[in-house]
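Please predict the structure of the following assembly.
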Amino acid sequence: MRILLVEDDSLLGDGIQAGLMQSGFAVDWVRDGAQADVALQTETYAAVVLDLGLPKLSGLELLRRVRARNNAVPVLILTARDAVEDRIQGLDSGADDYAVKPFDLHELAARLRALTRRGHGEAAAVLRVDALELHPAEHRVLFRNQPVDLSAREFSLLHELMLNAGRVLSREQLEQRLYAWGEEPGSNAIEVHVHHLRRKLAPELVHTIRGVGYMLPRATHD
Amino acid sequence: MTERRIRHSIKRRLLVVLLLVTLLAWGVALVFSYRDTRHELDELLDGHLAQSASLLIAQVGHEADDLDTERAPQLHRYSRNVAFQVWEQGRKLVLHSASAPNTPLSSKHEGFSNSRVDGKPWRVFSAWDDSRRFLIQIGERRKVREELAEDIAENLLRPLLFTLPVLGLLIWFGVARGLRPLQTLSGQVAQRRADNLAALEDGVVPVEVLPLVQGLNHLFARLRDSLDKERRFTADAAHELRTPLAAIMTQAQVARAAASDATRRHALDNVVLGCNRAAHLVDQLLTLARLEPQQLQSGEPCDLRALAVDVISELAPLAVQKNIELQLAEGDALRAPGVATLLGILMRNLIDNAIRYSPPGSRVQVAVARRADSAVFAVVDQGPGIPAEARELVWERFYRVLGSEQTGSGLGLSIVKRIADLHHANVTLAPGEHGKGLRVEVTFPVRD
């Protein structure tokens, strides 16, 4: 899942980026509100981690602009201010969640997973499609109740497909959601990962819609 | 031994002053009325003497031929103090009272005189009858008059003795009543909770107490202001510390979960960096906090150039490390009144900022120069500068210039400003050479 991190503090930004990547997120890191505004208009993110005290364009102003464009991307704000009125202001400006500095990295990751899950209309923390079971928090996948060993990228790919089960995702969409800036995938990277998934799970599990993209069909008995 | 100080009491002082003034007025009135009475008394008794004499003359005139040396009987005990003599031709005593001596009452033969009889003072009236045959002398012991006067004086004084304590009590209660607004006020102040700095009611306060109430209210207002400022500052400071703390925590968690040594090392390096930053922030906060209450006593003359040399020597390693050319312009020693440690902090903050924000290979120039009747300390860098619209904001605590990679505390310029203010110095920000970079000037007034 691709996350936009908006943080002007270099040490904190570096830490969050590294930490979220350890948790399997692809993280784009921008350091001011203006850059974030541009990024949000050009890329699609599963969620935004937004610091409020930002140069050039304040976090709250950015949030208002994003919501004004009818962009419903889940936004988690990072704030040093924990007074109730600050939190209310943040949530009322369109944020979905907030974390008060200093926060636990794992909690931040968990909150982001919860946000993206809700963004996909999922209530359960564990994703299930047919005989597939995916535990985002533990990075665990079960197929027919057997654990399957997947690489981080394969896991992210399967996660995206399961989140969008029954819908076709283009190669570009998948690339965009799986790779952050600076980690440009090779031209056939997605094909390779899909190939690995089919081999490790079942060949018929991931459907290729020629000229369009890939899809994980919804379970027929649902 | 503790020295015991006797406190002034307005009540006691008023009581004493009022009683003394009353006594004095009373005393003066007493002296005057005593003298007056004394005078009247003398006139009255003298008149009696004269009248008695004329009665006696009339009597003697009628019975002149029957007069022989004889003593009139003593009729009243008081009559021992009055006496009369009738002298024929002024030489032969023909009639006298029992109390009278055989010698003339007075040597004077006409009118009033004071004389001594048996060593005692007498008041005597002497007159001749119409035929100038008989000399009448009639006298009265002065003691009688003294006693009368004493009685009168006593009668005047007695009410004073009774009324004085009553007067004292009345004054005491009156003063206490007059001072009640002060008591009410001190009660209000004493009952206040420490955090209640609301203004005192001044509607019903008497004119004399009003300045006190107004003074207190001003003090409360100032306290409220400075408390608010402190609260804001503490809150700001705590919030500012959260970001480096969050960075440290995050980096530590990254290090713990790191799969590779390189990642772990990078994260741990960042943990150390974060700690340094937090420590720097704390240092700056403490510096600022110490500056706040400090009142600058008349500073001694400090050599600004020598101070600049010290600070530059201290910061040179940082400049070398960043490949920045740090230089001090030539010049003479220049003295300005101030506190050396504070001026050192001011210079360190400005030069450190310049080094921090300058790109490698650039130059930071420091100058200490005399200009008219002021001393100017200037730092010029070739960094990103401060946009005109942000130049007012940088003095605010925790303000950081946008888009800069550097992670300062946001307090440096606040500290500079505060120290400059304490020295009545002026700080200005302007673009550096060729409109690039930043030129900071601190102008100290110098009085010769």
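Chain A touches chain B at residues 9-12, 14-16, 18-19, 22, 31-32, 55-56, 78, 80-81, 100-106 (CB under 8 Å). The radius of gyration of chain A is 18 Å.
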